[in-house]
Amino acid sequence: MRGHHEGSIYGRTIRRKTRTTRCWVAAVSTPYGRRTAYAATEKEAKAKLVELLRARDAGLDPRGNYSLGSYLARWLADIRPTVRPRTYEHYLLIVRHLTAELGRQRLSTLSVFAVNDYLRSLQAAPRTVAHHRAVLRNALNDAMRHGLVARNVAALSRSPRVEKPSLSTLTADQAAALIEGSREDRLHALWTLAVTSGQRQSELLGLAWTELDLDGATMRVERALARVAGEWRLVAPKTAGSRHVIPLTPIAVEALHAHRLRQAAERNGAPEGLVFTSQRGMPLHRRELSLEWHATLDRLGLPRVRFHDLRHTAATLMLAAGHSLEDVKQMLGHSTIALTSDTYSHPVAERLREVAGGVEAMLARSRTRSRMGGDQVP
Predict the structure, then answer these.
(1) Same domain for 183 and 84
(2) Residue 27 exposed, middle or buried by CB count within 10 Å (0-12, 13-18, 19+)
(3) 213 Cβ contact list (under 8 Å, min separation 6)
(4) How many CA atoms lie within 13 A of 121 on its CB side?
(5) Are residues 185 and 313 in the same domain?
(6) Are residues 19 and 136 in the same domain?
(7) What are phi and psi of 376, to 5 degrees?
(8) Residue 150 belongs to a domain with what CATH number?
């Protein structure tokens, strides 16, 4: 016996002029009315009942008489608690565009051709097109799990070829020149910490003094500063692996001590005890950071790389110093070692070339000793 709102399954005889057939019916009461699905066996009917209940519980019409736009709106509401605020805003912008172009189409009749036409109509960079395709693919994956569509047409659409961007980094000499030449800058400690730790910009801007142990030379990464709905908010870091404790180098500790004294002299405390703020003591806006960063680079005659490229610089220097991918992964807070390897494949390749060169040099020395000893191998 099924409980209230659990739907029902029953057998039904269908009589036609030439023959009589027996089938099974799954039925569910929804806000849209009673919805049914037919099956040849009781087992199939049970599976279809599960699909009907999933759709109803998701707030959708199990018959499929709803648009892609209404489904995407519901999907956004469902995933909002599970993603970072900035990720949600990114999804929201893409869903608005999708809804404007494809929103009136029935979810059940959306075709691969329609998705391909939409992606071509964007006339945007391949990476942007790939983002739109990925959001729609994720949404339709959930629709498949709810039994609302039989296949994911976004996954079947043509994926634009996205060229992997080349990393822009400072060389070791340029990074050293940055640290030495910016000692009088009010954000000298930020430049130094970025080069020596490789943390994300949002994590550095969300750093609080309570998360620093200058005596123990450690830093806890627990929060990130993000602009959400026009307001500054301290949010969880990008990944679970982003929450970690890392060591501070002596030059970073020295710079942070000097920064604390400078900060105390120029303002009356910052919200949330932030380490890096504007001159008014407010969270540091990305635009303001960019202006100060580029002014420093121009003054020192260094290449105009992005501030985020200091993260790449740090990783490249760590690998060049002989540290393992696992060590670099832990420092950067990457979720997987595959991400570290894929992102920094060129520095890794250069390091492996050095390893191979070391092997060749060892073999050359052994061959020389062998010849000198009369071709005897010990």
Answers:
(1) no
(2) middle
(3) 219
(4) 11
(5) yes
(6) no
(7) -95, 130
(8) 1.10.150.130
